[in-house]
Amino acid sequence: MTVRVLVVDDHPVVRAGLRALLAGADDVEVLGEAATAAEAVQQASAFRPDVVLMDLRLGDGVEGVEATRRLLALDEPPRVLVLTTYDADTDINRAIAAGATGYLLKAGPPEELFQAVRAAARGRTTLSPEIASRLWSAAARRSGP
């Protein structure tokens, strides 16, 4: 199964780098790229990707969280996998609440990205190890001893 991906990031160099990186996976096809939430929704409607790689800060001032909500409101919504440098608890919680399938940090290794894209296409949640650890610790603190 080939996983069809749309890359959403406001930095052209990052989009180009992700496109080149993902081209190295035989089972991943990058359908397009977008710099803004509006472009992301338009392209997702036109191309119907399986997975959208979503940055949290976009060029049109609309955050990736809101873009995620808009994408998930489409008739045939893609899975949204957040790929960002931001690891604040509020960013993570807002992305998850918006319906993101996963949350990865850009500092992670390429293989982590490949695995997450494949998992997201199958509807499985994927988190960067650092993010998973923080969420686990926060849940443990909330539940008490």
TrEMBL record:
Record-linked PANTHER family? TRANSCRIPTIONAL REGULATORY PROTEIN NARL-RELATED, TWO-COMPONENT RESPONSE REGULATOR
Its keywords, alphabetically, are:
DNA-binding, Phosphoprotein, Transcription, Transcription regulation
Question: Which parts of the sequence carry 4-aspartylphosphate?
Answer: 55
User: Flavoprotein among the record's keywords?
Assistant: no
Q: Coiled-coil region(s) at which residues? A: none
Matches recorded under Pfam families: Response_reg
- Locate the Response regulatory domain: which residues? 4-121
Protein name per Swiss-Prot or TrEMBL: Response regulatory domain-containing protein
Provenance organism: Saccharopolyspora taberi
For the keyword Lyase, the answer is no
